């Protein structure tokens, strides 16, 4: 059109990164089956390695994430990929809700049940074996849905997030704790070196599965973090996605609403 101004190119906006199919083992089995088998194998060493390799910082990360849910935000929480129930127990300490923990690995759940019984909170936390991408719950069942270091293990990230949204009540809260790309010119290369070389080497001394903590490094590195994951949450239908960085961005707490 004559006299019209030339269109300015749009600024580059973060786009969802393509999820790389990182799997624990070099086999033809599905990622879901491989992840289940891996956690069944390392279940007995899992808690010790988490605390040892993070220098205990994982407890702080879970505590911060759990405090993002107050007692006023509902009485029914689903913790997806609950593992040995560390995050479910943190939620139990910082909310008044009943927590349902779900995980693929029965071996991880067995350890979680023992911990729940020792802490005397069996009436507050229930653990069930199940698939995070096919949640065995009706629509609009939970006031909040959480996941700590679990969503990167989904075989289909979009499907898993869609399921989490489906079982949330209207205006329900999503809280996801996950590894992310750290910031800072000094800390970033130190973290990368530790995560890529030191962590897998140390882990091999304590676990019979040499692939497990190599997979941790590779899956965390491939996971779309920061702005890219916020965009993925929006694409899955969540509202007001936000991010809180912890420990220089080594991990992030993502929140959103249905």
Q: What is the CATH H-level superfamily?
A: Vaccinia Virus protein VP39
Helix run count: 8
- Tally of structural domains: 1
Gyration radius (Cα, Å) is 19 Å
CATH topology: Rossmann fold
Strand order of the largest sheet: 3-2-1-4-5-7-6
Order of helices and strands: HHEHEHEEHEHHHEE
The major beta sheet can be summarized as: 7 strands, mixed
Q: Look at the structure and give the CATH class.
A: Alpha Beta
Distance between the termini: 43 Å
Percent of residues in β-strands: 15-25%
- Helix fraction by DSSP (H/I, runs of at least 4): 25-40%
Low-confidence blocks of residues: 1-20
CATH architecture verdict: 3-Layer(aba) Sandwich
Describe this structure in words.
By secondary structure, the protein is of the alpha/beta class. The protein has a single domain, classed as Vaccinia Virus protein VP39 (Rossmann fold), CATH 3.40.50. The protein is built from 8 helices and 7 strands; from the N terminus they run ααβαβαββαβαααββ. It has a 7-stranded mixed beta sheet, with helices on both faces. Strand 2, helix 4 (106-118) and strand 3 form a beta-alpha-beta unit. Helix 2 packs across helix 3 (86-94) and helix 6 (187-203) runs antiparallel to helix 7.
Set out the fold topology.
Blueprint: H1 31-53, H2 57-66, E1 76-80, H3 86-94, E2 98-103, H4 106-118, E3 125-129, E4 142-148, H5 157-167, E5 168-179, H6 187-203, H7 212-222, H8 227-235, E6 239-246, E7 251-257
Parallel strand pairs: 1-2, 1-4, 2-3, 4-5
Antiparallel strand pairs: 5-7, 6-7
Concise overview:
With 258 residues, this protein is an alpha/beta fold. The chain contains eight helices and seven strands; from the N terminus they run H-H-E-H-E-H-E-E-H-E-H-H-H-E-E.
């Amino acid at each position: 059109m004559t006299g019209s101004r030339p269109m300015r190119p749009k600024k580059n906006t973060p786009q969802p990164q393509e999820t790389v199919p990182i799997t624990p083992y070099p086999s033809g089995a599905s990622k879901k089956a491989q992840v289940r088998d891996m956690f069944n194998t390392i279940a007995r060493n899992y808690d010790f390695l988490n605390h040892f390799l993070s220098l205990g910082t994982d407890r702080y990360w879970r505590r911060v994430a759990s405090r993002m849910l107050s007692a006023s935000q509902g009485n029914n929480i689903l913790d997806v990929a609950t593992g040995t129930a560390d995050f479910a127990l943190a939620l139990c300490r910082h909310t008044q809700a009943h927590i349902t923990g779900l995980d693929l690995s029965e071996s991880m759940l067995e350890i979680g049940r023992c911990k729940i019984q020792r802490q005397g909170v069996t009436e507050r936390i229930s653990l069930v074996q199940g698939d995070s991408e096919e949640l065995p719950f009706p629509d609009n069942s939970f006031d909040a849905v959480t996941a700590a270091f679990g969503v990167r293990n989904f075989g289909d990230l979009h499907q898993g997030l869609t399921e989490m949204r489906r079982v949330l009540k209207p205006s329900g809260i999503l809280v996801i704790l996950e590894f992310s790309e750290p910031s800072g010119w000094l800390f970033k290369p130190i973290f990368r070196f530790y995560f890529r070389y030191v962590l897998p080497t140390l882990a091999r001394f304590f676990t019979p599965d040499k692939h497990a903590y190599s997979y941790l490094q590779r899956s965390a590195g491939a996971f779309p973090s920061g702005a890219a994951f916020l965009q993925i949450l929006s694409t899955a239908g969540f509202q007001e996605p936000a991010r809180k960085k912890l420990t220089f961005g080594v991990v992030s707490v993502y929140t959103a609403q249905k």
